[in-house]
Amino acid sequence: MRAVAEVFKQRVYEIVRDIPAGRVMGYGHVAAALGQPGMARQVGWSLAGLPDDTDVPWHRVLRSSGHLALQDVVRGVLQRGRLEAEGVVFSGDRVDMARFGLGPEAFLTC
DNA sequence: CTGTTGACCAAGG
DNA sequence: ACCTTGGCCAACA
Predict the structure, then answer these.
(1) Average pLDDT of A30-43?
(2) pTM tops 0.85
(3) Which contacts of A79-83 are long-range, i.e. CB under 8 A and separated by 24 or more positions?
């Protein structure tokens, strides 16, 4: 694995770990919080390599539209279940990002 | 090195 | 509100 990617991943995990329960973020927002907008896909790729027993709350990260990003139905249900357990309300098949979504501003480590 | 793929995003129809 | 298009950047064959 490339060293650069490892650092990127670690920072992604760091941000995701700081997302409070009951809140969600878009991949692009996480990338922006890292100071590198445009890396949204790499954020997704980084989370894709997470084991099931990880301490990173990857379920709090979804698309900017509020839809689940996962393609695997099984894991998608798991993600939705965890979010609802934390108080996140699903409007149909998506989450109201205006209420539960956090902006990158919340993570600007001065 | 080139081409395809992907847990994305924003804009336009 | 839904689908398509172009752009994005790293991993992978």
Answers:
(1) 94
(2) yes
(3) A82/A57, A83/A24, A83/A59
